[in-house]
Amino acid sequence: MELLRVGFKPTIYERRPNPKTGIVCAGGISLWALRRSGLKLPKGTVASQIRYIRIHAPNGHFWQGGCGGNVMAYTLRRDKLEEGLARRVRKLGGVIKYNRKVGTQEFRRLAMGYEFIVGADGIMGVTRKALNLPRPSPEDIHVGVQQLCAMPNHPRDRIDLYLGRSVAPLGYGWIFPVGKERTRIGLGFPLSEKVNPTNLLDAFTKRIGATPLESPNAKLIPTTRPLRNPAFGNILLVGDAGHHTDPFTGGGILGAVVSAKAAARAIAEGDPQRYKRYVGWLTAQNTIRYRLKKVLCELSDEELNELVWCLEGFQVSPTRMSLNILKALLALALHKPRLMTRHKILRQMLGLSKG
Question: Which band of pLDDT confidence, cut at 50, 70 and 90, is reported for residue 141?
Fold first, then answer.
C-alpha cells in the first residue's frame, strides 16, 4: 500500500488460495507494537482485547500481571486482517494473484519484468532459493504448531504462556483467546529438538483441558540473527524471509509491517540499499533479542521456576509483554553469577560491562 500511494503498481503473487487458509499465528500484538508499526487495523480485525497476562512456571506456579484492567494488547483475526489489507490494495489499484505458487525458474523469468522484487515468502520461499541463501541452523528455526480449541472457562481477556521442557523444550506454549469460548493453543520449539510437534501439542491441550476444534497447523519460524543487509541488488527481503521475526518471542507481525514499510520507502526513493538503514532500529533490537534468546534457552526448569518468581519483584510493563520476561531474566542474573559470567549481554544490560 505504501508503494501504491506513491504511484507504483505492484503485483502480489500469493501461493495460498485465499486469505483464510494456511494461517499459523497466535495473532497477539501489544499496543506498543501496534503504535510502533503504524498498522491501521481494518474493521473486524480484533478478536479479543487483552487486559491480563499469566506466565506459568514448570512447577505450576504462575505470575499474572495487568494494567489496572485497561487493554494492553489485542488478539487479532489474521484472516480478517489480511482480507482488509487486500481490499485496501485493490482499492488503490494493486493486483493480487492468489493460488500462484512460483517456482525458481518462473521467479527468475518474472524477475526480469519487474524493476524491484520484494520477497515476503518466508525462510523456505523461492526468493531465498533464487538468491542461494542458506537456511538458518536448526537451533535458530522454531517449529510453530497451533490449533483452534474450545475452552469455555478461559477468560476472554487473558493470554497464558507456559514454560518448561515438558511443554515445549527450549520454547513455550501459549493460549490466546479469540472470543466465543474459543482459544488458539500452540507451541514453539527449535527444529533441533527431535520431538513430534503434533504429539507434544496433543499432550499440552489435554493438560490444560482444551478441546480441539480443528486439525493442527504448523510452520517454521526463524528465530535467528537478523541479516546484515536484507537488500540484494533490486531484491528486498521482508518479514520472515528477511529474518525480521522477533527471536525472543517468535512474534512476526511487528517485523513484517515495519520491514515492508521500510522496503517500500527505499523503493519509492529509487535506492533499495537505503532499506538497510530504514530498518536499522529493528535490526538492532532483534540482534539484542537474539542474544537474550540464547540465554533463555540455556535455563533449566529449576531456573525457569525462579524466573517466574522474579517477576513478582518488578514494576512490569503493561504494554510490552516480552519486557516482563526480560526484567525477570535480569533479576535472575543478579543472583546467578554463572549467567553473568557466560553471557556478556546480561552484564551489559546490568551496567557491569562495556559494549
Answer: very high
Contact assessment for residue 174 and residue 208, using Cβ atoms and an 8 Å cutoff: no
Task: Tell me how far the alpha carbon of residue 129 is from its chain's centroid.
Answer: 22
Instruction: Tell the burial category of 315 from Cβ atoms under 10 Å away from its Cβ (0-12, 13-18, 19+).
Output: exposed
Measured between alpha carbons, how far is 319 from 298 in angstroms, rounded to an integer? 27
CB 184 within 8 A of CB 202: no
Contact 108, 132 (CB under 8 A): no
Dihedral of CA atoms 299, 123, 239, 1 in degrees, nearest 10, equals -160
Alpha-carbon span 275 to 325, nearest angstrom: 31
> pTM for this structure?
0.91
Poorest-pLDDT segment among 23-37, 52-66, 311-325: 311-325
Residue 284: pLDDT band with limits 50, 70, 90: very high
Bridge partners, 161 (sequence order)? 55, 174
**Residues 200 and 264 sit within 8 Å (Cβ to Cβ):** no
